[in-house]
Amino acid sequence: MITKSVKPADVKRRWVLFDAAGVPLGRLAIEVAKYLRGKYKPDFTPHVDCGDFVIVTNASQVVMTGNKGEERIYRHTGYPGGIRSRTRSEFLAKFPDRAVERTIKGMLPHTKLGDAIGRKLKVYAGAEHPHEAQQPEKIEL
After folding, report:
1. How crowded is the C-beta side of 98, counted as CA atoms within 13 Å?
2. Which range of residues forms the domain containing residue 50?
3. Residue 59: exposure state from Cβ atoms within 10 A (0-12, 13-18, ≥19)
4. Residue 60: which pLDDT band, with cuts at 50, 70 and 90?
5. Could you give the number of structural domains in the chain?
């Protein structure tokens, strides 16, 4: 049997839409990462970006289960003594689109290919999005 490797020119991309209202953040991130990478396709090739464009709406209504909201997220400003932190629930309340995007991108490869895949992700805090012209297909969770 011959192993078929898809070429970047042969990849067929489509636009998909996920509604994050009332969905646990981790379960949403798993499904979105699967569509971004294209792992659901029968001709998936790990070293080629063969995923779809993904739109996530209602990021402000995503749910965190258990004690995950109390975990701290750390970042450094680059200055001496510049460590800053806030809880996941504070981060989600203040920047819902960035919180969801950060969670999803954490499930992608941390390489140049992962960066290219991450650029196909569009996250919006509300139900409105500017991608109606692409006629995205709605995926139910």
Report:
1. 9
2. 13-64+95-139
3. buried
4. very high
5. 1
Specify whether the backbone of 7 is left (phi greater than 0), alpha (psi in -120 to 50) or beta: beta
What DSSP character marks residue 71?
S
CATH number of the domain that 19 lies in? 3.90.1180.10
Q: Name the pTM for this structure.
A: 0.92
What are the beta bridge partners of residue 15?
53
Q: Strands, DSSP E only, in 20-119?
A: 53-57, 72-76, 83-87
* Distance in angstroms (rounded) separating the CA atoms of residues 95 and 91: 6
95-135 pLDDT tens trace: 999 999 999 999 999 999 999 999 999 999 999 999 999 99
pLDDT in the model for residue 1? 74
Residue labelled with tokens 């991108």:
105
